Amino acid sequence: MDRYFTNFNTKDFPSEKVDTIIVGAGIAGLSVANKLKELGSKFIILTKKNVGISNSFLAQGGLAAAIGKDDSPELHFKDTINAGKGLCIEKNVEILVEEGLERVVDLINNGLEFDKDEKGYIKLTREAAHSKRRVLHVKDKTGKEIGKFLYKNLDNKYFETNFYLEEILTEDNKFVGVIVSNKKEKKVIYAKSLVIASGGYSPLFKRNTSTYNIGGDVILKAFRAGCRLKDIEFIQFHPTALNLPHTPAYLITEAIRGEGAILIDEKGNRFTNELAPRDEVARAIFEKEKEGSKVFLNLKPLIEKGINLEERFPTIYSLLKEYNLLDSIDKVPVSPAAHFSIGGIEANPSGKTNVEGIFAVGEASCSGVHGANRLASNSLLECITFGSKTAYGVYLYNMYQKIKEINISNKIKYKKDLTDNKKEEIIYTLKNLMWNKVGLIRDRESLKLALKSIENLIEDVQNHFSPVYILDILYLSKAVTLSALNREESRGVHYRQDFKSPREEFKKHSIIENKNFEIKLEVN
């Protein structure tokens, strides 16, 4: 794998300077930005699309925090550890549930309005594997409302929208800048530090709940820059995404099951505990589908409890209305879809990676708080908690750095351009390959077939001039597949048909380093 995937000479491009570059304008990136603004730092936020188009903005269920009178950070910690199946880094989980509670209080005190009951108390719902009702929500659009709340504090001057990150520039394992492009130009931005908050890699799979068609490419760019990848075999598949022909896999929030919705097969029979950990529910649905039965979500119990579907779950109500399902709410067709990347760029709670000047936060990162399976609604908590901590980490790092403008060049010889049809074919092939061979249920034979096919695609693409993201997602898919092949056990969301139980020798974190994709198992 080459260090750089594009032809460039930095002296040929216009350049800018700024203290910090944040890649991504989801809740993690906006949390970093809000705190950096408060600290008086100079930064810009790069985003491929307009603000508001991010996966964290799509989060429906809510934000987990132990604010209930019968709850505590200790109970939240215990539930998180139990869901993580032995791979949570406990000291980081303690930060998540304790400091996270403080960040939630900050949001409330600063004016974010969570749903309240008739007495004015914040309403709490329960989701899978939580022992208490501890999920704060704004109807079923919590992510969107938190994102809007954070965005309103930032002027447009901080944003460079519709810019694509092409290369991360380093010198002697230290970050120096980035090359970015839009439809009009390429330019170099030199900076002291880079924060990667670009989201996860669920779009690698054909059926996914992501807002993006492409995802994970920035993670691979960081890998090319020297960052270590951690636990990337762990991808959470959400049990209930809409399952209609020729229709995106729209997420149907777990909170709807927390309020009483049930899962049924074609005969109307319940077949699983709806509030078991997500990996268990997703596999139960998958097994039903293997038997030839479709699976449905029955929402009638909510109506019977007096819950107004349009008021409590307006996003879901609109979805059902759009697809003419309001008259059949007892049989809403659902099936699992790739939803959340548990693995990512190895980072500590302050976002620090092994490459000086590069920080990672949110779904792009892996700090070990989710272990082998994320507890529902802990992701938004991770974004706001570690987003704030990352801002402090960046601020302290920048204090002792100077922006370094250097010339870097790279030359690649291509045989010919990749046609648009060929690009689409490669992406389509990859997504199907990852879904069918590296998806919810895995085995050695399927993973080895996937690995060989991915390597063939890489060889084909490398001979052509193509968008850099294609090679990035191909190499990331290779890394995910290698990690899944290496973990010869079943643990959390990683399920192997040929190794159906956890194994003590694999109660460790998978680390991939940029040395011929060398995989190490570490304990930390």
From TrEMBL:
GO biological process: 'de novo' NAD+ biosynthetic process from L-aspartate
Keywords per UniProt: FAD, Flavoprotein, Oxidoreductase, Pyridine nucleotide biosynthesis
Domain Fumarate reductase/succinate dehydrogenase flavoprotein-like C-terminal: residue ranges: 430-521
Record has GTP-binding as a keyword: no
InterPro entries from the UniProt entry: FAD-dep_OxRdtase_2_FAD-bd, FAD/NAD-bd_sf, Fum_R/Succ_DH_flav-like_C_sf, Fum_Rdtase/Succ_DH_flav-like_C, NadB, Succ_DH/fumarate_Rdtase_cat_sf
Pfam families: FAD_binding_2, Succ_DH_flav_C
Catalytic function, reaction form: L-aspartate + O2 = iminosuccinate + H2O2
Entry's Gene Ontology molecular function annotations: L-aspartate oxidase activity
A cellular-component GO term for this protein: cytoplasm
Source species, domain of life: Bacteria
Subcellular location: Cytoplasm
Gene3D superfamilies: FAD/NAD(P)-binding domain (3.50.50.60), Fumarate reductase/succinate dehydrogenase flavoprotein-like, C-terminal domain (1.20.58.100), Succinate dehydrogenase/fumarate reductase flavoprotein, catalytic domain (3.90.700.10)
Group of enzyme by EC: oxidoreductase
Cofactor(s) this protein cannot do without: FAD
EC number: 1.4.3.16
Residue span, FAD-dependent oxidoreductase 2 FAD-binding domain: 19-380
Pathway: Cofactor biosynthesis; NAD(+) biosynthesis; iminoaspartate from L-aspartate (oxidase route): step 1/1
Function comment: Catalyzes the oxidation of L-aspartate to iminoaspartate.
Protein family membership: Belongs to the FAD-dependent oxidoreductase 2 family. NadB subfamily.
Protein name: L-aspartate oxidase
Organism name: Hydrogenothermus marinus
Lineage per the UniProt record: Bacteria, Pseudomonadati, Aquificota, Aquificia, Aquificales
